[in-house]
Structure formats: structure tokens, C-alpha cells
Design a protein that fits this description.
By secondary structure, the protein is of the alpha/beta class. It folds into 3 domains: 84-133 and 260-306 and 326-566, TIM Barrel; 136-257, Malate synthase G - maily-beta sub-domain, CATH 2.170.170.11; 579-717, Up-down Bundle (Malate Synthase G, Chain: A, Domain 4), CATH 1.20.1220. The protein contains 24 helices and 25 strands. The protein is globular, with a radius of gyration of 26 Å. It starts with a strand and ends with a helix. Strand 7 and strand 8 (219-227) form a beta hairpin.
Amino acid sequence: MDYIKQGKLSISKELLEFVNNELLPGTNIKSENFWLGLDETAHELSPINKKLLSIRFEMQKKIDDWHIEEKGKELDLKKYKNFLKEIGYLVKEGENFSIETKNVDAEISSIPGPQLVVPVKNARYSLNAANARWGSLYNALYGTDVISDSGGAERGEKYNYVRGEKVIEYGRNFLDSAIPLEKGSWKDITEIPKIDNNKLNLKLKNPKQFVGYAKKSNALSSLLFINNNLHIDIKFDLNQTRGGLKDKASIYDIVLESAITSIMDHEDSITAVDTEDKVHAYRNWLGLMKGDLEYNGQKNGKKLVRKLNPDREYISPDGDKIKLHGRALMLNRNVGHLMTSSSILLNDKSEIPEGIMDAFITTAAAMYDFKSKRNSRKNSFYIVKPKMHGPEEVKFTNLIFEKVEKVLGLKKYTIKVGIMDEERRTTLNLKECIRAVKNRVVFINTGFLDRTGDEMHTSMEAGPMIKKGDMKSSKWIAAYENNNVDIGLACGFSGIAQIGKGMWAAPDKMADMMSQKINHPKSGANCAWVPSPTAATLHAMHYHQVDVFSKHNELKKRNPAKLNDILTIPIADRTNWSVEEINKELENNAQSILGYVVRWIDQGVGCSKVPDINNIGLMEDRATLRISSQHIANWLHHGICKKEQVLEVMKKMAKIVDKQNIRDPDLKGYPSYTRMSDDFDKSIAFKAACDLVFKGREQPSGYTEPILHSRRLEKKANY
């Protein structure tokens, strides 16, 4: 790699040119000031970063030793808690307080709704996610299993009139629920409603729900309503037909405000192992902030160009022009504190902490938006920070952001922070983590996969873990999920910040999602992750059914989650599983690992719909990889299975994964698939998967990144 000296930094030529020639022009930041500020910050903060990571290691060693000493004894929670306090793992909780974050956009503070997370390296996905602020309910219903195939309503290449009628009926039922008429039903309307003197001739149970309209060629084309702070746009066209079937009220679509926010991800969903990858991701983010990112591709043999959608315009009942955001509010997920980047070397030739580099570059890119206000109307920039362990690491993130603001000439607290509650030490000390950033926090959420991975790694020596599928119903998970909401509400999040819940992982199982994911707003989450724009449109209906802010008032009165329950370690009370049960668990985990890793290593795909052992496509990222690899590592350590047995299972599952992937249409545009089973010894992907299992216990916090990055670099060197 070519490095250019800039002060005490050695900067890769590609990154230097990107920053100087693409990033900084238009920001009024001189390149010499940018690099000087990054130089001073990186050299000042890098030792602190290293110290915090060493504390993680030291604490883990003490916890391992404690469990080894207590082996064979029933867990004494009082004794365990005292021990965790002694080593600083569990900190003293301070007085009650409320967050004081200012200049928060409405999408975060007051509009509950779905949230997307997408790999920022993929321009098409990023643009789709940003544009998913509005989605067609009719398309979402027609194209998914929410509408049953029964009764002649099967999906096919040609439009199915029976299915179309079911979609229309579903849509009308939704309108009756979300925007009820004073009398009768939306099903009874047989003509386009009229607007006279800006007044709607339909009588609503709540007239204030009507907030605007639009016309096309002097005819009514759109009626805009609001419910629970979410908009519903009913589209009309007298001449419009849908697939040949005309609607009796000339409604050709119901468009829902869908993905309210979208996280552009530099972390778990992308492969970014070198300067080429990092610049690619940064360039896409810059394009999103400048508003000029484009994707040029092909769809059904035709040229496809995707850009950011414009704002939407309507006329209010007062006759005024109104604009609504045409795009989801974009947040940016930086990497955590663990990883370093070879893109910049410090004075001692060590790599820069990647999170510090991310903070400087992504914030500088966001400054373009401060002029245009396409994204944030409040001139705020939102960074989601993952994988922080406890309050001191959150304080460190706050310090990084303070330095960035100073160097870039931004007002204090311009950068807002989202705390991923996905590590055990953060969960147990969540209130103090929030206190550390009480002036900039806008987001907490639960991610049970990463959290389970850390649970298993932290308590590796406590004993063999229960089966992976049983984790969802374990005591500690329920308490963890409730605790996140309880603490958030106690700290004054309602009406200021997001309380989020994790991903629905099965993008093809939308009927199941509609029956289950309503539990997220019911639990007090004012945002929750979904795997696609279509899923966002469907999940949006849950927020019409549930008034989340009313739910907050209810939940504030309940007894908060118990610390003892969160501390309950999910070890098996019996391990007399049959050989068949053990093999089945190993096969499930191994297939999940291999299915994800082979795409990551060989093709540079960081997040995709990976077929599971039953050929059901699941959205996979490094969180799912962490839990599966740590689970096998735990069972190996405690003698539930043997290395030879696991290796045999890995080889068996590799053959299955090869068959699943060899003709996968989703992988078009990526390097061709390389079969692992043709030569296990030469397959870098297979060796990476084995490393994650057999070296899983020694990985820091059970993270997968070090192995993945090393093996991906090895693969890229062989291209």
C-alpha cells in the first residue's frame, strides 16, 4: 500500500485523495486542518482505546477464573453480583435523571415506525432504504404471503384478479381501522371523493386526520391523512387500473409512510477490510449526504437508474402548500472500539482505531447536509455506535465526538449517538451508559443475537449453554428486553429519543411478521428493524394499531425488570442430549456459519438472504455468525461434542451450502461462487468458518471480525 506522510500520520494514497479531492471541498474545511486534527486526536485517544480494550480482556479473565473456581456449585447470585462489583464490571447506579438532547429530528423524537439497516457499500440497497420512507401497501400485500394463496389467489407471472380483490379488501379494512369514517366503511365509497374550497366531502370520525391533498391535471389524485403521527396517502385516478382490474372508488394504491429512519451501516452488514473497501463505503455515504448518489443497473433487461427521491408536496386544508420528507432520516453506524484500520498508520506504525477514523470522515460528509437540509432539518448528525462495553466506553465515544466537533468547527452536541445495547456490561449498566451521553443520546435498542453471543462468551466457563433455539424463551432475554425499555423510559426517552427492537430475520415470512412483530410497539419500542422496504410498509401498519406514546405511559407504571433475572446465566440444567439432538444442533449452527462466511470471504457480501438448513432465506450478518460460532465453541469446551465430530459436521454442511449457493440469483454481480467441498484444504472460506469455531473461545468478546478480516484479505490477495 502506498502511504503519504501527513504530520505524524501515514495515510494511504487512495484515502488521502478521496478526503482531499472529494470529501472536504464544499465543507470549508482546509485539508491541512482536517489531517492535523485527526493526527492529534488519534495519537491522544489511541492509548485510551487500547486501555479500554485491555480492561475488557482483564475482566473476562477474572470472570473465567471465578467460574472455574465455582465449578460444580449452584450460582449464588448475591456472591456473583458482589464479585462483579469488585472488579468494576457492575458499577454503582447514580441518581435518577432525564436526557437533555436538543435539536432532534421528528423522525426520531415523535414519529414511531419501522427502521431499516443496510450495507452502505451497496448503493442500490442504500438508495432503496432511503427511498423506503413511502411504500405501496398494494405492492407489499400482493407480493407477499400476507395475502394467502388459497381460493385461487396464487401469485404468478400474470396479474391474478382474485388476489387483487383480496388486496383491495385488505386495504379497505386497514383504512377503516386507521382512518374510520363517521358512518359506514371505506368499502362503501364508489367514487372519487371531492375537495371543495380545500374541504373534504368525506366525514371522518376524527376530521383532524385529513391533512392534505394533491391534484393532477386538475383532478384529485391524492388524499393525505395522519394517524399516530404516520401519514397515509390514498391514490386516485379515474382512468387508472391495476393489472386490468378497476377499483370501484378509483383507488389505485394506498401509500404508507414506512421506513421512518434508516441506518447506513459501516459495520456488521458490510465487508470493509482495506482502504479500497473503506473508501467505497465513505464515497457512498458522501453521495447520500450530497444528494447525488446514483445506482445504474438492469432490471428485466431495461436500464435502471436509482436516485434519492424528492420531497412530497400537498395542499393543506388551509390551502397552504406543504412538504413532507420523501426519504427516511438517515443515521450512520460507525464501527466499534475493537477494530483498527490499515488505511492510516500512527507514528509508531500501529493502525488507527477504525472508529476514530469513521467518526471524522462520516461527520465531515454529513456537513454537506447541514447546508441542504435534505436529511436532518435540525442540523444534527446521528451516529449509531455498536459494541460498547459499559459506561467508560460510552464516555470514550462521547470524547471522540467532542474532538471531531472541535476539529470540524461544529457546535457541541451536533453529533448525536445511538447506543446499541448488545453487550452484557452495557445492559447491566445501561442507566450509567446513558448518563455518559445524556446530552447527545437519541437511541437505544436491543439486538438479542449479538447480546446472546456476548452472554455465551462472557460466561463460557460457567457451563454448557442451552440450545440456541431455546435462548429466545430464556429468563435473561425477557428481562434484558424489558430492561432496555424500562431504563429508556425512566431516563426520559419518550418524545425525545428512540427505543428500538431488533430485526425480523425472515424476509419471505411476512405473514408471520405481521402476526408477531406487533409485539415490538406493544413492548414500548418506537422503532424496530425490518429486513426490506416491503417489510417496512407492512410493519408500519402495526404503528397505526398501537399508539406507542400511550403505551409508554402504561409501561412507566410496571415493575422494572430485575437485575437478578438479567444475570441468570443460560446454562443447561441437564446435558443428557441424545447423539441425534447434539448433531442436529451442530448442523444447524454449522450451516448458518458456512452459509454466511462463504459469501463474506469469497464474494465480499456482508449481509444477504442466506438459506438456512431448511432452505428458508434468513437475513444474516455478523451478529448471527457470532452466536452460532460461540455456541459450538461452548459445547466443544464443555465436552458436549468433540473436534473431530464438529469438523465432520462442518464438511457435511459445506456440501449442502455449496448446493444452496451455486445458482443463487441474488449473487449476480459478485465474483463467481467457489465450492468449498471441492478442496477443503484450499478453501479460505471453509478455513475461516473452522477458525471461528475452533478458535472461537479465544476471540475478543467472541467477535468474528478479526478472523473474517484476516481471511478476507487473504482471499483478496489471491484474486
